[in-house]
């Protein structure tokens, strides 16, 4: 097996409630993977565990089959090349849009590295290109606090791209976007996949269909079904989970 | 010559043991005989006076001892002389009748010498041993224990037999045993006496027996040493108990000071740095209540605390509501700003109190029913401490029940957990906020009433408690009342156990350092609140 | 990224420069002259500048990194004690007990040798380094524990307050070897120059002004660097910063330590000018007062913090001299007013007025 990310029998409960229950999941390098599931299925918690925010009670999360992510903290996981976009968009509100991108750019993260950092032409060009890509060039010097919800989503995607991670964890990127923007986001993620690995959590089925990729259905903290969207949505148990209750 | 004291004693004892004989001569007759004869004759009369058991006798003997008993030349009446040397006045020794000015040289002093004085003292001791007033009887027995005199042995025996109150008889038994040790009784009797004394409180054992450590008789010395050792061991054990008790009472003080914060900070998340000053206002409320009672109705002073409790709760609670409505409500969700603004409030309250009541300590009294102490094994328990422990636990459980079962408590929890939802359910969140804050403040006021009994009531009173209270709440786990209780009690006890070992100041520093380290290890305290919201 | 010296920084530095040049000149003028400054006022003004440095130090960690330290008075006092110890050694045998080896208070306590932690303080450079190093080291160790365990917000404020309270109690003890209750005082001279000589006073004043300028520039350099942006990011969305790979605790420890060293510097300059350092400087209330200087001037503006300190301290001097009862009312009210109605302080108000005049859309400042 050469999975880039491999969750092996992960458990996590909150006050006796099993949010993640024997979850096993493997994603290969360059894959695009959609994770769906009803509210409270444990999707966000899964991302919390991968990124070091939440410690699992048991199980392993292997990175490149060698590093156990559950022993690392958030910064260490991020520095391995794992980037994350949050369900609730979080950008640095008092920084300008371009500074948000600058802070995210792949570069040494140490105190003294940033203290003596000088920006150069290449860096400026990269910022400009990213702003173009997320279509926020006209808001370049605006404080991020003044952006709309959708713009913040885009900015966060831009920040994620600026980090140039090997694995992108994207939690509900389409929330707050127009239909057209949703499709654009899907295209963007598809174009990124291949060189990088992308895991997307989303409730919007049109978006998932547009991604046109392997889908994992999470339910009560473990994998219920996996396969193409058509395959999983034809399964009775999946339909029951989504509609039955 | 040597025999004389014994003879006197014999007379005394005979007199004591044979009340019939004593009644043969009345006090009046005996007193009349006092001026006559030699010192020895006088001593015999003194013994007989003591034997009458007449309550008036004590005053006569006392006057005689002080050299104030004189005989009037004109009619031979025995008078107690007072007033000045120039203008002496007299009272009849027996009837207490005021005789007015006596005129100089109108009376003749009844003389006493040292040996007679000793006799008088013993006689007085013996008399008070059988005084009708139990308190005086007890005092006499205790005095006899402190300075055991062989002369009293039989009197003590007799008193023990006649005594009806257990605790006095116990004291007499001890005194009796101590007297035996001082007498020339045989070793066996003395060892028995040591056994009796060994059962007394450790301090008494030590003070009574220490002198016999080096007794010539090895068996006696050994018994004494054993008894003292056992007492010391017992004392060490009780010392720990005493520490625990002091710790719990300090913990209760901390708890009282912290409970209000547990509401405002723990439940509402409001950092109220004026909390200490609210406590201070409670203490001043007590002061004002007592002043008013003192000037208008001093007979109700015993009720002053009972009156101050509700008043302090209401008054300080109202101040709290005003602070919440005026300032704090504009700052929800901005803890650092709240901290600064409430610090401003605390400065203003401090200065206001200083301007009104002055910068010095004000005197707050303790009602009689609360003062005093009782003995529990080897330790002395003072009533104010008991009162504070009881009061603080009462407030704690009262609050716990209020939060859990009352409609108000339910609304409070609803609002703090989900403000928007609570508002949609028709709860007037603004009102609940104000009342919750007022409740926390009111409890701070209650703490003030209690602290006025043990601390100096000055404008700085609150400052001494604010850091401690915050540490207690944080240490216990914010939002958890039981945690606050556990934290207050464990910090109080830890403090008291560190004190003898490290000194008060160093002990306090060690506790502070411990809490600082603890918070860094477990930022959410002993009993952290759980759930996603808590992770923020 | 932003310029190192912007308009308000430039204005402030220029004003500071003018004062620094004029005050020494004015102090040498004839007593009769209208603008003459009596020599005793110079240390007072120097003291104010020390407070300004302290305010800049706190603004660096509160305004930019969101670390509301309620213990900066402790770092200030530690710096002061370090220099105070040197000044005690310089007294030599001129003390009341004329003991060449021991400071007076140790003779008084009946000690017969110098405690080990007083070694080296005879030598000025050592004391000067210690004035920065001791507060820095304390901040580093304390911050390392605190930030690594993710203590932040009010919890951090409370434990910094507890820290300074613990130090207060400790320094009150005679056994600590720092003069107990009375602290260190009766200094004679520094580096051989008499502390009461006007020329020494002027030199110390100028030195303080230079230190203030240097601290402002250093603080500004930190805040405009990329590291400064990271600090603001930490302030606004700490966990987001972590997920981007920044070690938040390292940044916090860094800025906390730098800030503590600045506070230590302020204390070190303060002591020779006021002539005493005692445990009262550790009082929690002192540390909290610093916060209102910063808040009044304008949090996160550096220059504003310095201005806030100067304004509050000047008003304090005047009120305590003329209406001593009013001072605490005024200070208390200031806390409330600033928090409720002036979230961006004096500089925020000035900014607002300028924008209103220019009819430009108001720019939102850092939320509290
Ligand atoms: N820190 C926490 N403390 C307590 N419970 C938690 C915590 N984190 C997650 N949970 C619980 O775990 C369960 C899974 O939550 P999670 O956020 O992972 O769901 P999700 O699949 O992302 O849902 P959604 O689609 O609504 O975002 C939920 O019931 C949630 O309440
Ligand atoms: Mg989710």
Characterization of the model:
The complex is a heterotrimer of chains A (about 240), B (about 525) and C (about 375). Chain A is an alpha/beta fold and about 240 residues long. Chain A has two domains: about 1-80 and about 215-245, 3-Layer(aba) Sandwich (Rossmann fold); about 85-170 and about 175-195, 3-Layer(aba) Sandwich (Rossmann fold). Chain A has helices spanning about 45-50, 75-80, 95-105, 110-115, 120-135, 150-160, 180-190, 205-210, 230-235, 235-245; strands at about 5-15, 15-30, 30-35, 60-65, 65-70, 80-85, 165-170, 195-200, 215-220, 220-225. Chain A is globular. The N and C termini of chain A lie far apart (about 35 Å). Chain B is mainly alpha-helical. Helices cover about 70% and strands about 5% of the residues of chain B. Chain B has helices at about 5-15, 20-25, 25-35, 40-50, 55-65, 115-130, 135-145, 155-160, 165-180, 185-200, 200-210, 220-265, 275-295, 305-325, 335-355, 385-405, 405-415, 420-425, 430-450, 465-475, 480-500, 505-520, 530-535, and strands at about 70, 80-85, 90, 100, 105-110, 375, 380. Chain B has a five-stranded antiparallel beta sheet with strand order 4-3-2-1-5. In chain B, strands 6-7 form a two-stranded antiparallel sheet. Residues about 15-25 of chain B have low confidence and may be disordered. By secondary structure, chain C is an all-alpha fold. Chain C has one domain (about 5-360): ABC transporter involved in vitamin B12 uptake, BtuC. Chain C is about 70% helix and about 0% strand. In chain C, the strands form two sheets. Chain C has a two-stranded antiparallel ribbon. In chain C, strands 2-3 form a two-stranded antiparallel sheet. Chain C is globular. The model of chain C is unreliable at about 360-368 (pLDDT under 50). The interface of B and C includes residues 343 and 350 of B. Adenosine-5'-triphosphate (ATP) sits at the interface of chains A and B. Chain B: It is a multi-pass membrane protein. Chain B: This is Urea ABC transporter permease subunit UrtB. Chain B: InterPro entries: ABC_transp_permease, ABC_UrtB_bac, BCAA_transport_permease.
Mean pLDDT figure of chain A? 88
SS content category of chain C? mainly alpha
Please trace the helix and strand order of chain A, writing H or E for each element: EEEHEEHEHHHHEHEHEEHH
Identify every distinct bound molecule in the structure, by name, code or SMILES. adenosine-5'-triphosphate, magnesium ion
Class per helix and strand makeup of chain A: alpha/beta
Radius of gyration of chain A from CA coordinates: 18 Å
Instruction: List the chains of the largest interface with their residue counts.
Output: B-C, 41 and 43 residues
Assembly category: heterotrimer
- Major sheet: arrangement of strands of chain C: 1-4
CATH architecture of the largest domain in chain A: 3-Layer(aba) Sandwich
Number of strands of chain A: 10
Largest sheet of chain A: 6 strands, mixed
Nearest-angstrom radius of gyration of chain C?
A: 21 Å
As a percent range, the share of strand residues of chain C is under 5%
What is the end-to-end distance of chain A? 37 Å
Looking at the structure, the CATH topology of the largest domain in chain A is: Rossmann fold
| Beginning-to-end CA distance, first to last residue of chain C | 23 Å
Kindly provide the name of the CATH class of the largest domain in chain A: Alpha Beta
Number of helical regions of chain A: 10
Count of DSSP strands of chain C: 4
Number of domains of chain A: 2
């Amino acid at each position: 097996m050469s999975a880039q990310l491999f969750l092996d029998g992960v458990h996590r409960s909150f006050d006796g409630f099993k949010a993640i229950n024997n979850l096993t999941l493997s994603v290969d390098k360059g894959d695009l993977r959609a994770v769906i599931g009803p509210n409270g299925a444990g999707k966000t918690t899964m991302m919390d565990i991968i990124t070091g925010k939440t410690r699992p009670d048991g199980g392993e999360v292997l990175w490149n089959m060698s590093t156990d992510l559950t022993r690392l903290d958030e910064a260490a996981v991020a520095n391995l090349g794992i980037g994350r976009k949050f369900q609730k968009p979080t950008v640095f509100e008092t920084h300008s849009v371009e500074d948000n991108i600058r802070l995210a750019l792949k570069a040494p993260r140490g105190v003294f590295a940033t203290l003596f950092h000088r920006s150069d032409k290449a860096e400026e060009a990269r910022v400009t290109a990213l702003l173009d890509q997320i279509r926020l060039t006209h808001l370049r010097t605006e404080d991020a606090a003044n952006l709309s919800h959708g713009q913040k989503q885009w900015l966060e995607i831009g920040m994620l791209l600026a980090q140039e991670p090997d694995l992108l964890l994207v939690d509900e990127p389409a929330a707050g976007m127009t239909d057209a923007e949703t499709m654009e986001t899907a295209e963007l993620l598809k174009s990124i996949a291949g060189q990088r690995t992308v895991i997307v959590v989303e409730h919007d089925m049109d978006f998932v269909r547009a991604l046109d990729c392997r889908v994992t259905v999470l339910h009560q903290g473990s994998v219920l079904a996996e396969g193409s969207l058509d395959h999983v949505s034809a399964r009775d148990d999946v339909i029951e989970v989504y509609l039955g209750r | 010559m040597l025999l004389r004291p014994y003879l006197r004693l014999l007379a005394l004892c005979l007199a004591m043991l044979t009340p019939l004989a004593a009644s043969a001569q009345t006090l009046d007759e005996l007193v009349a005989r006092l001026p006559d004869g030699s010192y020895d004759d006088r001593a015999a009369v003194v013994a007989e006076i003591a034997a009458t058991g007449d309550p008036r006798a004590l005053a006569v003997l006392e006057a005689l001892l002080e050299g104030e008993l004189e005989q009037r030349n004109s009619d031979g009446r025995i008078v107690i002389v007072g007033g000045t040397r120039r203008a002496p006045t007299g009272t009849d020794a027996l009837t207490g009748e005021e005789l007015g000015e006596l005129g100089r040289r109108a009376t003749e002093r009844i003389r006493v010498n040292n040996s007679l004085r000793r006799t008088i003292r013993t006689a007085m001791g013996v008399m008070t041993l059988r005084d009708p007033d139990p308190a005086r009887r007890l005092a006499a027995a205790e005095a006899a224990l402190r300075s055991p005199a062989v002369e009293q042995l039989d009197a003590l025996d007799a008193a023990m037999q006649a005594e009806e109150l257990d605790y006095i008889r116990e004291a007499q038994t001890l005194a009796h045993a101590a007297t035996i040790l001082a007498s020339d009784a045989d070793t066996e009797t003395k060892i028995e006496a040591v056994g009796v004394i060994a059962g007394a409180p450790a301090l008494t054992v030590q003070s009574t027996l220490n002198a016999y450590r080096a007794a010539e008789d090895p068996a006696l010395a050994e018994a004494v040493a054993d008894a003292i050792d056992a007492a010391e061991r017992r004392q060490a054990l009780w010392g720990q108990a005493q520490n625990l008790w002091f710790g719990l009472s300090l913990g209760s003080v901390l708890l009282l000071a912290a409970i209000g914060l547990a509401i405002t900070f723990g439940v509402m998340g409001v950092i109220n740095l004026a909390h200490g000053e609210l406590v201070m206002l409670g203490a001043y409320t007590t002061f004002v209540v007592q002043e008013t009672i003192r000037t208008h109705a001093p007979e109700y002073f015993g009720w002053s605390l009972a009156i101050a409790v509700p008043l302090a709760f209401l008054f300080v609670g109202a101040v709290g509501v005003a602070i919440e409505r005026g300032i704090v409500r504009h700052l929800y969700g901005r803890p650092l700003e709240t901290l600064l603004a409430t610090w401003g409030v605390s400065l203003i309250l401090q200065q206001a109190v200083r301007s009104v009541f002055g910068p010095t300590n004000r005197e707050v009294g303790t009602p009689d029913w609360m003062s005093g102490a009782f003995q529990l094994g080897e330790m002395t328990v003072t009533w104010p401490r008991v009162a504070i422990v009881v009061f603080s636990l009462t407030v704690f459980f009262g609050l716990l029940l209020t939060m859990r079962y009352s409609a108000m408590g339910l609304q409070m929890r609803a609002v703090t957990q989900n403000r928007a939802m609570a508002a949609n359910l028709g709860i007037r969140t603004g009102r609940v906020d104000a009342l919750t804050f007022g409740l926390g403040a009111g409890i701070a006021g209650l703490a003030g009433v209690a602290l006025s009994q043990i601390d100096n009531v000055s404008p700085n009173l609150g400052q001494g408690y604010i850091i401690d209270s915050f540490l207690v709440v944080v240490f216990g786990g914010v939002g958890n009342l039981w945690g606050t209780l556990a934290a207050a009690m464990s910090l109080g006890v830890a403090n008291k156990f560190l004190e003898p070992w490290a000194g008060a100041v160093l002990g306090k520093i060690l506790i502070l350092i411990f809490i600082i380290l603890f918070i860094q290890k477990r930022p959410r305290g002993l009993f952290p609140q759980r759930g996603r919201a808590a992770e923020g | 990224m932003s310029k190192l010296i912007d308009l308000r920084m430039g204005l402030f530095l220029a004003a500071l420069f003018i004062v620094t040049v004029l005050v020494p000149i004015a102090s040498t003028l004839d007593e009769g002259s209208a603008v003459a400054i009596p020599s005793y006022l110079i240390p007072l003004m120097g003291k104010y500048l020390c407070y300004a440095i302290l305010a800049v130090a706190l603004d660096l960690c509160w305004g930019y990194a969101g670390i509301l330290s309620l213990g900066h008075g402790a770092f200030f006092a530690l710096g002061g004690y370090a220099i105070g110890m040197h000044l005690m050694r310089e007294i030599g045998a001129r003390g009341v007990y004329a003991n060449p080896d021991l400071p007076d208070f140790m003779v008084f306590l009946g000690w017969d040798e110098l405690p080990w932690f007083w070694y080296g303080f005879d030598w000025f450079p050592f004391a000067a380094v210690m004035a920065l190093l001791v507060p820095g080291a304390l901040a580093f160790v304390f911050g390392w524990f605190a930030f690594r365990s993710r203590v932040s917000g009010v919890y951090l404020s409370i434990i910094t307050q507890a820290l300074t309270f613990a130090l207060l109690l400790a320094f009150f003890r005679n056994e600590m070897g720092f003069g107990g209750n009375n602290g260190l005082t009766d200094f004679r001279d520094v580096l051989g120059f008499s502390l009461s000589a006007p020329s020494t006073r002027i030199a110390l004043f100028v030195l303080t002004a230079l230190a203030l300028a240097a601290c402002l520039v250093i603080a500004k350099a930190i805040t405009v660097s990329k590291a400064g942006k990271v600090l603001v990011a930490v302030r606004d969305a700490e966990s987001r910063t972590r997920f981007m790979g920044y070690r938040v605790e390292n940044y916090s420890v860094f800025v906390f330590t730098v800030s503590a060293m600045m506070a230590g510097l302020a204390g070190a300059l303060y002591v020779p000018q006021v002539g005493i350092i005692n445990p009262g400087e550790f009082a929690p209330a002192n540390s909290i007062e610093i916060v209102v200087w910063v808040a009044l001037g304008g949090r996160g503006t550096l220059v504003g913090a310095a201005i806030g300190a100067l304004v509050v301290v000047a008003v304090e001097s005047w009120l305590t001299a003329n209406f001593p009862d009013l001072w605490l009312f005024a200070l208390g009210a200031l806390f409330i007013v600033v928090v409720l109605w002036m979230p961006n302080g004096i500089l925020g108000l000035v900014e607002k007025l300028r924008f209103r005049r220019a009819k430009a859309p108001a720019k939102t400042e850092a939320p509290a």
